[in-house]
Design a protein that fits this description.
The protein is α/β, with parallel strands linked by helices. The chain contains 17 helices and twelve strands. The strands form two sheets. It has a ten-stranded mixed beta sheet, sandwiched between helices. A two-stranded antiparallel ribbon has the order 8-9.
């Protein structure tokens, strides 16, 4: 109880001074602070699901929709935990976020309980949460149809007016269904929610493990609450300078060198894949398949696959073996043969089996994604013609995905959030993990975050493929385990080598994208 009072008092002063200065002076006591009602909540913990272990507990707390008006509308926040069984060695809590935006994090303690070694788990209660607007935390819904959730729209002059209408329709349906609430579903407010969770749990500080979008959320928290950040691991990082249109565009930029690497690798195995003896021949084989599918869709595992469908699977090229197998399969299908392996450009999402007893709208992932990326920053162009020009330019620059990345998005018609984007620029000590060949947060993105976090150290897995490092049994796990167990960062940045032919294991975090992105595993 004493630790809870201390935590509440500390957060009260911080929030009053830093988050809502208009509400109370920096010297306000906890009793005078209107946020006290949130900071002193006592969660009623219960078994998360009848099929889950009794040790996996869930609770609901309340947070203000608008931290500037804490006595106004409240929203629910779902939290979960697995407590350490080594009470004498407990350091605190390890808060977890799987990415997104829009990733459901309530199941994360279960996932990570099976991935983390005992040397780490004994120090922490593993704590998960669904961010505001997501999953079990007052979930958003725009009432979007399946067609409206399809955001993969390559530029075509004849279809551009239709794509503009789609983007406007998504924004208008979200505004009509959720109203002004959308302006408050932002990264900054989610970071504030994290600090309420910290206070409610009675902690002076939190440790944190965030994947993908979770790296940006963690960096924003460290920027807003530097004294509260204990041991932070940011895995597969978003560049804070490119929030958010630039982070979609970086997929196109990062794909071209991955594609070039793939052509070289595949040419060296011409006898196996029969796609060409030289990189140029492999490249020609691929683009010939795209052209053929543009003329007449290819029947690929029962799906009519167009050239645009093939290009939209660009993320497969970050895993050279998987891409070679898929393109070889596609070549057989294009010649009228039966593909040799069961592989799809649009794989299904994994299931993690916990229902939590409450249904979630089918478009929740899309609604929460667009809310965050549109409300976080006012940097989205408002003129549809700017998107047309950029899509034409970037298709020439980055043929695989440039027009997909730069085409019109609902953010062109979204109402601005309540705050400007956070400038990340601090010296908080954090550990960053990054694969060299990450399709969603390419290496330049991770370097951008590393540059902004001046106290960070990066472990780069040379030759590492895929999105998400920690828990994949890579060479980076040793450094991450040591840091979480001891708090000691490496003296300098570390580069370790991915094992040749090593298969990925463990957690695959959600991709920082709404539904419908093909060629990649993950929730979104």
């Amino acid at each position: 109880m004493r630790s809870r009072r201390i935590a509440a008092s500390l957060l009260a002063a911080s929030v009053a001074a830093t988050l809502v200065p208009a509400l109370a002076p920096a010297t306000a006591s906890a009793a005078e602070n209107p946020l006290t009602q949130y900071l002193r909540q006592k969660p009623r913990w219960h078994r998360c699901d009848r099929d889950s272990p009794a040790t996996f507990q869930c609770a609901d707390i309340k947070v203000p929709l608008d931290y500037r008006h804490p006595n106004g509308k409240k929203i629910g926040l779902a939290i979960s935990r697995i407590r350490t069984s080594a009470a004498g060695e407990r350091r605190g809590v390890l808060l977890l976020n799987p990415g997104g935006p829009g990733g459901e994090g309530l199941s994360m303690p279960q996932w990570m309980d099976s991935e983390l070694p005992k040397s780490v788990k004994k120090h922490y209660d593993l704590v998960g949460f669904d961010p505001r607007g997501v999953g079990q935390s007052s979930p958003l819904s725009c009432g979007l149809t399946g067609a409206e959730q399809n955001w993969l729209r390559p530029y075509k002059a004849s279809a551009f007016a239709k794509d503009v209408k789609w983007a406007r329709t998504v924004a208008e349906k979200c505004r009509a269904k959720e109203g002004d609430k959308l302006r408050y579903i932002t990264t900054r407010n989610t970071a504030r929610d994290m600090d309420v969770i910290r206070a409610v749990l009675g902690e002076r500080k939190i440790s944190y493990l965030g994947y993908s979008y979770g790296t940006y959320l963690g960096a924003v928290y460290a920027q807003m609450f530097p004294a509260r950040a204990d041991r932070f691991v940011l895995d597969s990082a978003v560049d804070p300078q490119r929030i958010w249109r630039g982070m979609i565009q970086v997929w196109a930029e990062g794909t071209e060198p991955a594609f070039t690497r793939w052509t070289k690798w595949t040419a060296q195995r011409a006898a196996q894949y029969k796609l060409g003896d030289t990189p140029d021949q492999v490249r020609k084989t691929f683009w010939d398949l795209v052209a053929q599918a543009d003329r007449k869709p290819i029947d690929f595992h029962g799906q009519r696959t167009t050239g645009d469908d093939i290009r939209s699977g660009r993320a497969m090229f970050f895993s050279v073996r998987a891409a070679a197998e898929t393109v070889a399969d596609l070549k057989k299908a294009a010649a009228g043969g039966r593909p040799a392996v069961t592989r799809e450009l649009r794989p299904t999402s994994p299931s993690f089996g916990t229902s939590f007893g409450r249904s979630v709208p089918s478009d929740n992932g899309d609604a929460s994604f667009w809310s965050v990326v549109c409300a976080d920053t006012a940097a989205w162009p408002r003129d549809p013609e700017q998107y047309r020009r950029d899509a034409i330019r970037d298709k020439a620059r980055y043929p695989l995905y440039g027009d997909f990345a730069s085409s019109i998005k609902p953010c062109a018609f979204w109402k601005n959030g309540t705050e400007p984007a956070t400038k990340v620029n601090n010296k908080v000590g954090v550990l960053m993990l990054q694969n060299e060949w990450d399709p969603q947060t390419p290496l330049p993105s991770g370097i951008g975050m590393h540059r902004a976090l001046k106290g960070s150290r990066m472990v780069m897995v040379a030759g590492g493929e895929g999105h998400g490092v920690y828990g994949s049994k890579s060479c980076a796990d040793k450094t991450a385990n040591a840091y979480l167990a001891t708090g000691r960062l490496p003296v300098r940045d570390v580069t370790c080598q991915a094992a040749a032919g090593q298969e990925r294991h463990g957690l695959t975090p959600p991709l920082p994208a709404p539904s419908g992105i093909p060629g990649t595993p993950g929730r979104f």
